[in-house]
Amino acid sequence: MNYTVTGKTDGFGAQYLSVMSGIAFCKANAIKYNYVHTPFKSIAHSSGKEESLNNFIGIPNTLYNKNNEQINITVPFSGNVHWANKNVISKIYYNDDTVELLRKYYYSSPKPDIKNVDIAIHIRRGDVSIGLGDRYTSNSDYNKIIKFLNMKYPNYKIVIFSEGKIDDFEEINGNNISFRLNECIEETFHSFVCAKILVVAKSTFSYSAAILNPNEIYYINFHHGPLEHWKLISDFI
Predict the structure, then answer these.
(1) Domain around 51
(2) I need a surface site. Which of 49, 138, 185, 189 has the fewest CB within 10 A?
(3) Which of 129, 133, 136 minimizes the C-alpha distance to 164?
């Protein structure tokens, strides 16, 4: 049966993760399901960039439905993948073969030239603020994370990626810190993919980048569970 993921209109990270989930689900059930790709149609916070972001993720033309084949199943994401526990998501869905396939797609299109990033920390702001929902992590909590990272990796530089003004982060302190705020999606995302160490926010944007990143990942708990090899930041602070 032909299976596609489409219908979401939220941000790039959420939509890319949904595509990843569809590919992972079909690969795990290859006898029954064939993934057919539907490009992003409308991306929140990125109006007008849909075409470039479709190219950015590198899904090959061979997966596009160009012959008007029948689509048997259309979903906004694969719930089997999104809500899987740590063991299932790593062994069945985002296993080595599937992650390697996703990386192959991703690197098949041009990427920004990213200089070495030792530690990338994603602080989700913009669409979250103090007291709104469970996606907000305070600056004081990030100070604990930075203190731990400074002690464990004293020679590594920390780059904080976020949105807003530098004044919004005046509480943040630590050694070897710099900020990159309000940068374009492609540069920020690829910095996360390339970082030697990535601290994932409660965000599908850095979460999906972490799936592609082959290095060390620190995970802040939220409703998408960690891959098996990721480190829970709560174990260290």
Answers:
(1) 2-106
(2) 138
(3) 129
Last-in-domain residue among 106, 141, 166: 106
Whether 113 is covered by a domain: the verdict is no
Residues 6+ apart with CB under 8 A from 104: none
C-alpha span between 161 and 98 (Å, rounded) = 28
Q: Write down which residue in 106, 135, 168 finishes a domain.
A: 106
In a domain, 112, yes or no: no
Q: Which two tokens stand for residue 115?
A: 């200089």
Residue 227: name the closest of 115, 106, 134, 94 by CA: 94
pLDDT digits (tens, 9 = 90+) for 30-45: 999 999 999 999 998 7
Other Cβ atoms closer than 10 A to 107: 12
* Number of domains forming the structure of the chain: 2
Q: Which residues pair with 75 in a beta bridge?
A: 5
Q: Which of 104, 110, 138, 108 is nearest to 124 (CA)?
A: 138
Contact 150, 174 (CB under 8 A): yes
- Structure tokens, 8: 């979401």
Angle at CA of residue 28, ends 24 and 31, nearest 5°: 125
152-155: Cβ within 8 A, 24+ apart = 152/236, 153/118, 153/119, 153/197
- Say what the pTM is: 0.94
In a domain, 114, yes or no: no
Q: What is the pLDDT of residues 129-178, one digit of tens each?
A: 554 556 678 888 999 999 999 999 999 999 999 988 898 888 999 999 99
